[in-house]
Structures are given as structure tokens and as C-alpha cells.
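[step 3/7] fold_predict: job queued, chain A
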Amino acid sequence: MGQQPFRVVDDGSITSPKGFSAGGLHCGLKKTTRHDLGAILCEVPAAAAGVYTTNIFQAAPLKVTRESIASDGLLRAVLVNSGNANACTGEQGEADAYEMRSRFAEAIGVEAAQVAVASTGVIGENLKMEKVRSGIDSLPQKLTGDLDGAEAFCQAILTTDLVQKMVCVQLELNGKIVHVAGAAKGSGMIHPNMATMLGFVTTDAAIDSAYLQQLLREATDLSFNMITVDGDTSTNDMLVAMASGLAGNEALTPEHEGKEAFAAALRYVCEVLAKAIARDGEGATKLVEVQVRGAVSDESAQAIAKTVIGSSLVKSAVFGADANWGRIIAAVGRAGQPVNPDTVDIALGDIVTLQGSRPVAFDEDAALEYLKGDTVVIHVDLHMAEGTAKAWGCDLTYDYVRINAAYRT
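[step 4/7] structure written:
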């Protein structure tokens, strides 16, 4: 991503920012013994922001979390369960989400409105609240400010994910070291129109809730909103950010000299997590990146990039290592954006397959070897203006069908 005003902390985590602890445990929502209940706790009221799914059917925890953040823009904790989405569960589901909030708030000694709630898993089943209650009562003792606590939390939020997803960076603002970290889960039902399946950002930067909300939305639009695995937008998508302010920097504002550095760090954290979700797509064997340039605007380039990355035919061709550029240009042409049909270039990595919308002779064997790799970059140049965008996804494999044909069983 070029020279950045921050550095990646290799052993960093969501507990690296000052004031944060995390943890997880198995309470019995999952059939396996893998953790299924976790939390992030801040020792002080943290400025909070959130973005949520645009799916009309929104899970009960989203209502609770929106309400918590809207009350005064502050959070002390977020409580998360996996194994059950608590979505399409009616009044009982709402009551259960509110009980989760109030019970955990009591367990950690804070006001209920200072707790956010998130859930992920099977839609349409009521939570086994006796198990959740027991887990909540034991969870505060599991929260630690070290890497073990962060990893336990990351395990607790997984469903069909194969790997945990976490990243941390640090930068200097006003002579103070500031951390920005994130964790996420997501593997299937990924085509966000807000964020990801579930994402959590922690930072010790001093920033108010309103400006954090603005920066989080901007970062989301360039990262989580630019990934797709299967074209399905979940009922539970949620991204929550918490800022403890304990780094001691001068509070960030739109006029702060360090605003661009902080915004870049936040975008980087969100992009790394978004790409990790795309790479971990259900059944996936490859991360696919689409880079569009030369569009009439960035928004137009984004629409084209996401159309190409979401094409089942493009995804299938990548899985089969088939350099079928026809599927790519077809997706470009149906994106509903201005395109000159005589000026499009397409390349797979550095292998040019189309120039000026005309086929170019290329080495099929070299293309085959490139497409067999674990990362495939598709370049599309429209030669119209200056608009650019990147989108990320994965190949479509036999295993995706196998996993989702038996998701509940």
C-alpha cells in the first residue's frame, strides 16, 4: 500500500491499545468445544461508532447496539456470541438481546447502555439463554489485556471461518504513540453494504464519537464494502469501533494535523481485515483482487470492481485457472456504469489479455501458472478518466456448495 504513516505491530492485537482487555469461553451454543461467547472491555468510557447491515431483516442485537451507541456515543464493552444469529426471532429475540446486555453490564459493573451486543450464526433459532447466562457470569474472569485474551475473543466470534483475523498498527500523534487494532469474522454470506459480518476496532486515540463515526464510515466504504464472497448480505453485519483516548494525544478533529495519518491507519486496519475475510471465503483456495482505473469516477470504478469480483463466472474461471477474459469484460459491461466499448484493457497480473477491447495474443501456459497461485489480481483499465477502485473476493469452489448445503446440520 506504499509508504504509510504508521507501522504494523506484528505481535499486536485488539488489546494493544491502552485500556482494553478481551476474552472468550465456550458456553454451549456450538456443538464443538470451540469458544462461542466473547467480549471486549474498556476500562474507561470509550467513544464509540458503528455501521450496520442494510438488509431489511436486521437481527435483534443490532437494535440493542444502535440504541447503546446512540444514547451518548460511549461504550464500555461489546459482548458477542457465535453459533446463533438471534435473527428473525421476534419479540423473544429482542428480549434475549436486551437481557444479554443488562446481564453483562451487571457482571462488569457498568450501565446497560454502555454495552453493545453482537451475534452470528444460524438464523431463526432462539438463543439457549440458560447457557448464555452461565457464560456471561463466568466471562469477566476470562478478560485479559494480553494476546491470549485477544485470541480467545477472536475464536469466540468464528462460525465457518478457518482462521482468526486480527491486525494492529501504531503511529505517532502529538508525540504520543497511538494504536489502532481490529478483529473480524466472516467467511460466508459476505456481500456487505455497510461493514462485514462482524468487525471490531479498538484504539487508544483521543477522538469524539461523531468524528470517529465519520472516519469509520469512510474506511468501511473502501474496505468492507468492497469485498464479496457469495453476494449475500447478512442480517447481522456490524462493525463497531471504540476509542479509549488513553494515548494522551490532542483530540482528533477534522482540523487536527494528524487526522490523515490516523485515517490512513484506520483504513489499513479495515482493509487488512476485509481482505482476510475474502481470502477465508467458504471453500476458497484463492484471494482475488480486482483493480479498476480510468473510470469516470471513483464511485463508478467501485461499482465495476465489485461487479467483476462478484461474478460467479469470473470466480469459477479463477478456480479452474482458466484465463477466460470474456467473463471479465462481460461483468464490466453489465455493471451499469459508463464504459467505452472500444478502450478497455484487461490483464491477469502482468499478463495482458485484452487491449483497446481487442484480444491480445498471450502465453496460455504462463496464464495458467499465474492463476494457480493463491492470489490473483485482475486489472481493468477503462481509459476514460481518473476514477480508481479495488475490490476483493475469492474463487467459487465445490466446497462452497458442500459447506452451505449442510450449514444447519
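[step 5/7] annotate
The chain has eleven helices and 15 strands.
The mean pLDDT is 92.
exit 0
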